[in-house]
Every structure is written in structure tokens, then in C-alpha cells.
Design goal:
The chain is 39% helix and 13% strand.
Length: 221
């Protein structure tokens, strides 16, 4: 399956949002050419563009689906209102948003809505941007270019306060003879049948396991 995104104007400096219909069409043609394929299985809007009505975005993707260039429509980091508005025009297949043992905000509004509308969920940063691996603590320093330097949860004080969570995860991992990362991934996989952690196959190997996670059953109990 091929999944890719639109929504940023790469021709402009910085991260400039652009989900205007003409830009979406130009983006999909560029992706099809670069990927050497006739269609994209799942086409995500990378971020909601406040300057373009969601109905226009969803309508454009619906047209691309009708033309056979896209199979399914996805959203990334969209809120409840945006999801409802988009879904009313073009059925949304999947939402991508951050979710982990360390970041559970989607449970408040997003997950109930996705279940209501039968939309799949693709959590990103399932390992808490590395924190849930147990390799990061309050004394860890990041390179000056590391984005975690500006993430409040990665301040020294926050990491120290949240270290208790990591210690619990590490203790569970030791009991099951698995890694802390495997515990974090197993927790996500057990949450709902429509959850599929982002880049699961890519993250499972570095975490010390396989995509099947053979010890998943006892880990999640």
C-alpha cells in the first residue's frame, strides 16, 4: 500500500501550508510521477489549512478518487470539526495523530468520533518520540537541531517528572522479557482493532521484536 501526503508548498521557504485545489492536483501528479504508479492508496492532508475550507479540500480529493488517481482520503492532525466537515463531503478512511502511553489526548474526543464514523486511526510517535524506549532521562541532552528541544514534554523538568511512567514500563518489560518499546507498542495495538501504529514495521525491529510481536498477549493483560 502506498500512502503519501499533500498540504505543504515545498516551493516556498519554511513550512507553508497550501491545500488549495490546484495545489492538491499538482501535488498528486508529482507524487504519481515520483512513485511511478497510477494511483495512491491513501492520500493524507498533512495539516489542516485554515485558509482553505475543508469542504473544498475533501471535494478535490473526492474528484481525484472518481478519476482513479486516489483510492482513499486521510487526514493528519485534524480536529473533530474538520473531520466531520471533511467526512460529510468525502468519506475519510484514516486519521493520523500522535498517540502513546505518554500522550493520550486523542481519547478525549478523537477516538470516540472515529469509532462513530468508522474511521481508522494511525497513531504516530507510538514510542513517545523515543521517551518510552527507556533510553532518555532527565540528564539526556539533544543536538541543537533536534526538534525535541522545543517540545515542552522534553524539558528537563518534564522528563524528570515523567520518569516514573518509564520505570513502570521498564518493570513490565523485564517481567515479560521484552523491551520497553515492545510494551509501548503492545499497549497501542491492544487499544482498538482499528489502531495501526505508524511505521509499525519500521519501529518493531529497532524495538527488538517483529511485527507479529509474539509475546503480545501476555504483555497486554
Amino acid at each position: 500500500m502506498i500512502a503519501t501526503k499533500f498540504g505543504f508548498d515545498c516551493e516556498r521557504p519554511g513550512q507553508t501550508l497550501n491545500s488549495r485545489p490546484e495545489h492538491i492536483r499538482a501535488a498528486v501528479e508529482g507524487s504519481l510521477a515520483r512513485l511511478k504508479t497510477d494511483y495512491i492508496d491513501l492520500y493524507y492532508q498533512h495539516r489542516v489549512d485554515p485558509d482553505v475550507p475543508m469542504e473544498d479540500v475533501a471535494g478535490t480529493v473526492a474528484d481525484l478518487i472518481a478519476e482513479g488517481k486516489v483510492k482513499h482520503f486521510g487526514l493528519s492532525e485534524a480536529g473533530v470539526d474538520s473531520i466531520r466537515r471533511a467526512h460529510a463531503v468525502c468519506p475519510v478512511t484514516a486519521l493520523q495523530s500522535e498517540y502513546s502511553l505518554w500522550w493520550r489526548q486523542p481519547e478525549q474526543q478523537l477516538l470516540p468520533l472515529l469509532e462513530e464514523l468508522n474511521i481508522g486511526f494511525v497513531p504516530f510517535s507510538p514510542l513517545g518520540k523515543g521517551f518510552l524506549t527507556g533510553a532518555i532521562d532527565a540528564s539526556t541532552t539533544f543536538d541543537s537541531s533536534d526538534f525535541r528541544n522545543v517540545v515542552p514534554r522534553f524539558s528537563e523538568a518534564s522528563r524528570q517528572a515523567n520518569q516514573k511512567l518509564v520505570e513502570v514500563v521498564k518493570s513490565l518489560a523485564a517481567e515479560q522479557d521484552v523491551t520497553p518499546a515492545q510494551i509501548a507498542l503492545a499497549w497501542l495495538l491492544a487499544k482498538a482493532p482499528w489502531d495501526c501504529p505508524d511505521s509499525w514495521h519500521n519501529q518493531a525491529a529497532p524495538a527488538g521484536g517483529k511485527s507479529g510481536c509474539g509475546k503480545r498477549d501476555p504483555v497486554t493483560k
